[in-house]
Amino acid sequence: VQVEESGGGLVQPGGSLRLSCAATGFTFSNYAMSWYRQVPGKERELAAAISSTGITTDYLDAVKGRFAISRHRDRPTIYLTMNNLVRDDTAVYYCKLRVLQRDFWGQGAQVTVSS
Question: What is the pLDDT of residue 112?
Fold first, then answer.
């Protein structure tokens, strides 16, 4: 199983970015995917999660109303649309796939919010 993020980068405060995450190497239809973020010296925290059906989502309070998680209808790919970014959103964003009670992580995508 492989999990790969893309779409990070440098953005000014108030700007937007969209992260993508694609999982490959498995065929199960029941799985969950989520986005975490981590800054140096702090624990990794859940930023957004989406259920296997795509119906249920969950967000970190600090990103509610600004971030939106979505998933591709036909393949294990999720997206994180981040709007009105602030400096505190600067972090490495990790994608996590949970399948058969095992977690698989991507390598992370750096998001830097700075003027």
Answer: 98
